[in-house]
Amino acid sequence: MSKKTKKASELQGINHIIVDATIGVTDLVEAMHKQIVHPPLLPSTSVQNLITKIANITFKNIRWGTLFVGKTLDKTLGLLNPALGNLKSSDKKDFILSILNGVIGDYLAEKENPLEIEMHFVHQSKKITIDKKSIKNSYSNISGKIILMVHGSCMNANLWTRKNHNHGEILAKETNETLIYLNYNSGKHVSTNGKEFNELLEKLTKNWPVPVEEITIINHSMGGLVTRSALYYGEQAQKSWTNLTKKIVFLGTPHHGSHIERKGNYLDLILESVPYAKPFAKLGKIRSAGVTDLRYGNLVDEDWQHKNRFELKKEHKKHIPLTENIEYYSIAAVTGKEKSYIKNRFFGDSLVSVKSALGKHKNRDKNLHFKKENTFTVYENNHSDLLSNPKITEILKNWLQ
After folding, report:
1. What CATH number has the domain spanning 120-257+317-400?
2. pLDDT value of position 399
3. In terms of Cα–Cα distance, which of 91, 104, 92 is closest to 14?
4. Which residues pair with 378 in a beta bridge?
5. E strand residue ranges, 145-244
6. Which residues sit opposite 190 in a β-bridge?
7. Where are the domains of the chain?
8. Residue 2: exposure state from Cβ atoms within 10 A (0-12, 13-18, ≥19)
9. 0.85 exceeded by the pTM?
10. Is 112 left (phi over 0), alpha (psi -120 to 50) or beta?
11. Which residues, other chains included, contact 294 with Cβ-Cβ below 8 Å and sequence gap of 6+?
12. Percent of the chain scored above 90 by pLDDT?
């Protein structure tokens, strides 16, 4: 897909997904058809072979017809684009795009689909152009101290506000620091987003209207992995923003992965092991690169390059310890009550276990070694409640002030 197509309307982007999805389902039905007509481990008759040949012609025509109609519709939408314009912006639309990017964001990036979220900074739901004039015009007051909020998988900057509560807004108001958010395509590999975040943050600090004194980064879920990845690549390249970053907070970050993604991987293997169900294993592979990175908490390219990300293997990611020049804080959530020790230890907030959120690994050499006074576990809260619990805001105030 050309760069010109990148500028196509969002309607065209939806059309591209429908075309690819139709062809994908056709492939699935054809595979299922072959499994039924030609039972595993049994010889095929001439009648069975004839049925398969006729079916192949049918499936081929479906693919051809889908591509033809898709291309025609795409051109039509392109002509209508000046009149229709892009879909109207709204919180609902942004939420849908965030989920779409989280689930198939790597596909959207590969196809240069207009529905892909390009990484950018946000203030009051508006994209910030990174130059001194634009940044200055975005804020009534600019501080040399920055609070940066990084969202999790399938989310966006607006979703930091939950139940009319926003940790960042409260903290920024009390400290007079400048609040800014990051939006990104959470379906891409964590390391891909990490490298991009590293470059974008360096550009931000160099174009900040006043000298940057310090940066505090607050992360939710996957956002913590993206920040740790950015920090790794930034320190390797000796970027100035890494020296300005003084405090980093993690809320429910799967530092050592999520048991939910590991279970998803088991599902793939089970489906592939059953002859008649094998075609449906393709459905499990819809999960984006970003989601599969959550299996063990991948941070760098070496964790996934030249590997089949759907193949079940033991953890082989590179251990990236926390650096000494930054104060790190981590909060874990537990859905149950404090007394339910065994259940809480494993299931945690329903997505991330307590040990993973607090950087504890069964191999002690891979522990992240958070200071005890810099960690906290909140009970009767799920993964999303980490965004709206006022008690967490009070904890953050004590840590960050």
Report:
1. 3.40.50.1820
2. 96
3. 104
4. 333
5. 145-150, 178-183, 214-220
6. none
7. 3-87, 120-257+317-400
8. exposed
9. no
10. left
11. 153, 222, 225, 254, 257, 258, 260, 261
12. 54
